[in-house]
Structure formats: C-alpha cells, structure tokens
# Entry
Amino acid sequence: MTALPLPLDGIRVLDFTQVIMGASATQFLGDYGAEVIKVERPGSGDIFRNSLPHEPGTNNPPFASVNRNKKSVELDPRSENDAATLQRLIEISDVIVNNFRPGVMERLGLSYNSVKSVNPQIIYAEATGFGPKGKYVYKGGQDILAQAYSGVMLRKADDAHPTAIYPTSIADYGAGMHLVQGILLALMARERTGLGQKVEVSLYDSMIALQHQEAAMELAGAPELNWASLPLTSVFDASNGQIVIVGAFKENPLSDICNALDLEDLSIHEEFSDIESRKTNKDALHSLLEAATAQFTVEENLSRLESMDILCAPIRSLSEALADDHSAPMIIEVAGPAAPRCERHIGSPIHLSETPARAGQAAPLLGADNEWLQSLLDPARQGGGS
# Structure
C-alpha cells in the first residue's frame, strides 16, 4: 500500500528559532512533513547546541529533542552574499519563524514588511517573551520568567508551601504549541484567501491562557479556584512510596475513601461533614487519611481505592514512567546524523490514523545541509545534495 502524503508535505519552513519555544514548534511541523530549513550562525549555530557541558558542536540531548526532521544551513543575514541567499529562500518558502526579541529581525533586514514585499503569501510567525506591545516588550523572554510574571509560580496547593520554580519548561512548550496552532490557522486561511499574514505568540500570553479557569473566577470577583487545594485532593504516603488521591466527582467521596482504607466513615463527623468543614479541618483530616494509607503499599492503596471508584495514582519518577510499557508508543527512534548512531526521542502526542508523524532524522549537525542549499537555489545543480 502506498503511503499517504503527510499533512504538511510541500510546505517549506525557514526556521530562525533557537533554544526551546520556537524550535519545538518547527520540529512539530517537520514531524508532519514540512521541509524545515534551520538557519544558524556560521561557526556556532543555535546557542542551545552548547547548553550542556558536552564537546562544542555536538548535538546534546536537549538540543536534539527539539530539532529532529530539520536541515541545518549556516547563513549570516548581515553578509551581503548570505542576505541575497536568504531573499531567494524567502521567495520559495511558505513560513518563516523566529523567536528573537522584538527588533532583532528588523535589524537583520528581515522585518515582516520586508519579507512580505518579497513573498506576499508567506506566513511570518514570531514568538517572543512578552509580545509586541506593552512595557515588557524588550525584556528578555524565558520560561521561568514567564512563570513568575504570569502568576503561575505562586500557584500551589497550600500557602505554607515554599514558592518554587516548576522544573519542566511548561511556558516554552505551551507557547511553542500555540505557535504551531497559529501557523496552521494561517496556512488554512491562505488556502482560502491567497494571502499570508503575521502570527504572534508569547510566553507570557501562553501562561496567562493556561490559567483560563482560574482567571475567569478572578475576573468575576469569585473565590480563588485552586484544584490542588481541595480538601480530599492530596499526596499521601504509602508503606513503599507515595500516591495521590483526587476525592471529587462523587456524592460523598470521603465515605468511599474511608471504606476503601478500612477507616470509620469520617464524613459523619461534624468537622468533616461538608467541603467547608473539611477545608477548615484539612490538616486533621489528612493526618487520619495518611495514617490509613501508610498501612498499605502503593499497589494495595490503588487497588482498594479503585474498587470504590476513587481517582488515584502512584507518584512516579520520569524514569519509571518511561520504563512503563504504556509509554512505549511515545518513544521513537530516529536515525542519527552519522550512521550507525541512533537516538531515542519523545514523539508527537498527536496520533493520526492515516498520516501519522514521521520519526525521520535526528537533529542535523551544524551546517550539514550547506551544499544541499546551493543545489536547491542553483537550477544547474538540481538533483545533488541530501
């Protein structure tokens, strides 16, 4: 059976992104068939290439995790020859993506208006820290800063908990996926109108959007919404690890939890009889529940609680999650830049039945496709290159 073309086959993306936010977006496009040409600084490339203390120029795992299915070319827009090459590339591209601070692309002679004048149908996608307007426009954008500015970092289950940085790049990944959505929407609009347009996303806006439920309550002057602070939702110790219980979506979840853990029904006591009394007496309630969960193993707790249809889960490390055979479909193997090297990555979480994401090629070595680029732009050399 002949394989179907991927959804983005025939779409060419000119990729000026660095680090995580923009690079994760262009990798997603490449996973679904787009030809992604990563434009890098001659000699040094994307600063993320050297984000770990590896040998300079090597493709460390974080860099490789957001740069598969791309070609790498070394071009300096400030060079007259390279600027001319970029103009020719813009003419034959569908999308141009960057995540520089506002003003950088303009200084490189690659503003939206200048690019649009070369190719009116191009989708010009820009991801920044704080957007194109407002008092933080020129402030450096970074995942942790976005967590702090947006209120995300202060959100916690209990005010007594110390304020902490969320250790996974949620702002970068969230904004990167919003950037993908914007690019795909613009491509769909172009199919109908024939016109390109500018797409803008920011780390800050994405973190505000992440809190849409909580913000709706805040804007309505209603009490704070905090799912993690609900009195029957918490982490509890087992005899050999920890579990999390979400006591919700049932008429009397506390009664069912007590039944599962061989406890007397605490819900009949006045201090635990409704949600408000449970909030007031949360510490006492949790002490009683944890004394019960500590008598059983993680597996025993889960079995008991699930028998009463209580939402619960073991608290695992990433290595444990990756070792679970349930995670196997998410782990892909890609061909390395130098055979027989092979790399394992996390694949796309979007699973299409007919045109699934391709595993494809690992992140390219810096400048690996310089010669290919010349073949692309020189009709006399068509057919050469990779």
About this structure: Residues 170-193 form the longest helix (24 residues). The chain has 15 helices and eleven strands.
